[in-house]
Amino acid sequence: MAQRLTGKVAAITGAASGFGAATARLFVAEGCRVVLGDIQEAAGAELASALGDAARFTVCDVTKEADVEKLVDLAVGEFGRLDVMFNNAGIVGAVGPIATTPTAEWLATLDVLLNGVFYGMKHATRVMRPQGSGSIISMASVAGLMGGLGPHAYAAAKHAVVGLTKNVGAEVCRYGIRVNAIAPAGMATAMVANVMTGDPTAIDAAKQSLAASSPLKGRAGVAEDVANAALWLASDESGYTSGHTLTTDAGLTTGARPTNPAFDQYQPMFREAGRKGL
Fold first, then answer.
1. pLDDT tens digits, one per residue of 130-172
2. 119 SS3 class
3. Which positions are catalytic?
4. What is the CATH number of the domain that holds 106?
5. Residue 262 resides in a domain
6. Lowest-confidence pick of 79-93, 100-114, 143-157, 202-216
7. Which residues of 185-222 are buried (b: 16+ CB within 10 A; e: fewer)?
8. What is the tens place of the pLDDT at every residue in 187-199?
9. Strand partners for 188
10. Contacts of 168 (CB under 8 A, 6+ apart)
11. In a domain, 267, yes or no
12. Residue 3 lies in a domain
């Protein structure tokens, strides 16, 4: 099978670990050249070195527009174009009741999860529009599609990413640019492992716990599931898809649960006034 991203160039934020690192590895394997951005300098540089001539790394704090602009410009400067922008960088952020959430933590969370996506969309569009093509992918979450699945600031930011994806997609479609998002459930990554166990390296333990509670029997979500979703959205295979939020959640947002639904056993049909059957 031909490599699905041959000739394409991608920029990825939050690329040193988790979804970003898995996506970088997959993209390079599929023929893409990648520019990796992250505040984890040592891990990012190590990954770029491992990926060889197809990868470059730069320190990128997505709360600083100049850093995101530099990431995009590095892709163009090193590889001549930008075909894919993956706004992946993220944190859990502020946690707690709305009545006691510190305002500074609320603002800092939105700065990473929402403003960082805005900067990525802005500067990717700046270079994609003249070339007449491009795919912008942003990290949303099931917490951006339903209530009660994440902390308040996180949920607000992820709902905003879904809305911004639709709105920007509606604007830039006329320039050949597609804009989509990915909404994962809790996946076996360092960030989730840290939330679940207090140890970001306990990914295997998180995976076992997630597998036990997954709607898909015995199957936890992993970083590669998001990477595969990003690959499809980055490739020409999704060439007629824009403004869409693709879930990687084992059906959670459609009501799938690990236990049987209340309606899984036959009963004669319920009718008016307590009557049953035909």
1. 999 999 999 999 999 999 999 999 999 999 999 999 999 999 9
2. helix
3. 154
4. 3.40.50.720
5. no
6. 202-216
7. bbbbbbbbbbebeeebebbeebbebbbeebbeeeebbb
8. 988 888 888 889 9
9. 222
10. 121, 125, 136, 179
11. no
12. no
